[in-house]
Write a structure and sequence with these properties.
The chain has 344 residues and is of the alpha+beta class. The chain has eight helices and seven strands. Strands 2-1-3-7-6-5-4 form a seven-stranded mixed sheet, with helices on both faces. It is rod-shaped and about 120 Å long.
């Protein structure tokens, strides 16, 4: 595996063997990168400089792994427990001197939705991201930070780094909604397809509703998280960064509205499928009933002429001609009537 500049050296420093992947570290001073790939134990040394901002990323750490960074930053045991535990709800908790954030990054592959949990400790000059797996692309996050217009400015703070994390999370949530929207279009085509594959429609629509419900559970709390960050009385976001976070908040609203709209659309598609299935059944029943009526004519005529009693044309050639004529005329007449009424 290729080494990244921000990865710490776990070969030369065994104490940096934390989690499922090497930790990533980076420090800024005056808006410029001062160091990266330094040992985790040196985080407090960089923070000792008044104008330094430090980022640390951990992938799949355990309780013992987080003890180092907990001692470095003085983290609360409850927050550490939430960072290590899986399937925590999306939330933002405030502690003395820092905040704890838990969000989810969705990915859609092969019609299936997968959630990747990401936690973060954010203080005035430090950001610690904790990933449960490698589903969250840290390299893409770094590229976003470096490509930002303010990358060379002095406003590179922990709040700005947090903005990059939230912006990437919401963008990935939007990509997931777009993928589910495309899946909805495919299900819609199946519903109105002449072949009408019922089992395929049922399977895909059930999976789609399940994915939308799961995405909605992690997308809706993002509004509360951004609302809390934007509250002026809490002063979590500096005034220059308020428009940035407001833009992310607008995107969270769009994701939530888009998800709700897709859920309603899928419900309408299921109702439409039932209506179309009922209409198809009515068409089939009309055709079966029409052919049954046509077949009943020769059955009735032959049954009448099969009586063992004398009747006009009994045991005569003319009787066969008359019965056959009645069958042909009545059957053709019923066929024409049903055809004109679009029953056949």
């Amino acid at each position: 595996m290729a080494s990244h500049p921000s990865e710490t050296d776990i070969e030369g420093r065994p104490e940096n063997r934390i989690g499922a992947a090497p930790p990533r570290t980076r420090a800024w001073r005056g808006g410029k990168i001062e160091a990266e790939g330094f040992p985790v134990a040196e985080v407090s040394d960089h923070l000792a400089r008044p104008d330094a901002v430090v980022w640390l990323d951990l992938c799949g750490p355990g309780h013992d792994d987080l003890r180092v960074i907990s001692d470095e930053l003085g983290l609360d045991p409850v927050a550490v427990e939430d960072a290590v535990s899986r399937h925590e709800r999306a939330k933002l908790d405030r502690y003395d001197g820092y905040g704890f954030l838990n969000v989810y990054v969705p990915t859609v592959r092969g019609g299936r939705l997968t959630m990747h949990e990401v936690s973060a400790f954010v203080s005035e000059r430090a950001l610690v991201t904790v990933r449960q797996d490698t589903g969250f692309d840290v390299d893409e996050l770094i590229r976003r930070w470096d490509a930002s217009p303010d990358a060379e400015g002095a406003d590179r703070t922990a709040a700005f780094l947090l903005y990059g994390v939230l912006d990437m999370v919401v963008d990935l949530q939007m990509e997931a909604v777009q993928a589910l929207d495309d899946e909805t279009d495919e299900v819609e085509e199946l519903v109105f397809d002449d072949a009408f594959p019922v089992k395929e429609i049922q399977r895909r629509s059930f999976l789609l509703r399940k994915n939308l419900a799961a995405l909605r559970r992690v997308a809706l709390p993002m509004r509360e998280i951004l609302n809390t960050l934007l509250r002026r009385d809490l002063r979590l976001v500096p005034p220059p960064l308020v428009p940035y976070f407001q833009d992310v908040y607008d995107h969270t609203l769009r994701v939530a509205e888009w998800t709700d709209g897709l859920r309603d659309l899928v419900a309408d598609l299921l109702d439409t499928r039932l209506a179309l299935q009922g209409n198809r059944m009515n068409e089939v029943m009309k055709k079966v009933t029409s052919w049954a009526a046509i077949i009943a004519v020769p059955t009735a005529v032959t049954g009448f002429y099969g009586q063992n009693i004398p009747y006009p044309g009994f045991s005569q050639h003319s009787g066969f001609i008359v019965s056959t004529s009645i069958i042909v005329v009545c059957s053709v007449g019923l066929y024409v009537i049903f055809k004109l009424r679009d029953w056949l």
